[in-house]
Amino acid sequence: xxxxxxxxxxxxxxxxxxxxxxxxxxxxxxxxxxxxxxxxxxxxxxxxxxxxxxxxxxxxxxxxxxxxxxxxxxxxxxxxxxxxxxxxxxxxxxxxxxxxxxxxxxxxxxxxxxxxxxxxxxxxxxxxxxxxxxxxxxxxxxxxxxxxxxxxxxxxxxxxxxxxxxxxxxxxxxxxxxxxxxxxxxxxxxxxxxxxxxxxxxxxxxxxxxxxxxxxxxxxxxxxxxxxxxxxxxxxxxxxxxxxxxxxxxxxxxxxxxxxxxxxxxxxxxxxxxxxxxxxxxxxxxxxxxxxxxxxxxxxxxxxxxxxxxxxxxxxxxxxxxxxxxxxxxxxxxxxxxxxxxxxxxxxxxxxxxxxxxxxx
Length: 361
Description:
The structure is a single chain. With about 350 residues, the protein is mainly alpha-helical. The protein contains 15 helices and no strands. Helix 6 crosses helix 9. The longest helix has about 40 residues, at about 135-175. About 50% of the residues are buried.
């Protein structure tokens, strides 16, 4: 390789560094994906909650407020992704139009289309940002032009692919609720505790129905499980931080001793099929809530809004005591009891030692 080519490559690398363009799995698969979930929460999910409250209490103003929040889903996701990618202001603001186009044209798989297309549009926008004296025209034109053209050409295909994968998972769960209940619960639970976004994954795949119920079970098993089994180390602060915050707080401890991950994971493998086979727990609210678990009780609120939606659509007659019992057992009681019980012999065997679950709170 000639020295001229080497110098050219180094110059391009320097250019990317100066523009803060980092092509990495962390930047796109963790930072951008996690931010997308926050954008979804701040638009679609909170809008659904507000609308449901309005419908239940016969307050049309809340229904209207929720409607506006849900209408901003695409732009909110794109703006959140742009923020995570550290976009300059003109690029960030231009992504609002990109998000609207990608989410609309992506259909049921809109969130995945928004993620991919917004990343591409943002990075191209960052490349041209502040490179000319007419930046106020060039940067928005490039960002919006590339983003919307990609949306027109690719969003329907990306959305259809994501929707197909999600539909396949939901079909398989309906066909084999026991085995798929285990698989979905464990995998989505893993994603929740790992530094990636289970909520964004569920939203991108449109994971609802029985599969969504299994996902809720898995997430709850991780959050409640870690919260209860680490109570002796972390007391009440840890219980709330993990139980209604996130089990991701234990990731550092898991790296040091992976065995601590076994109790909540085994619990998720048990509660998943209980949710699908015994209680028929379904998530028919916003798909993003399937991957939220007990975080702010969003998973449970999502299940409840799904019940309300089913009643409104005539698919369900009423919310029954068994519905409430199922949600209580799957989301709170069983994860707590199972994880605590499984951890006891592991502590006696020395697989989990004193301090292995300690958090710096």
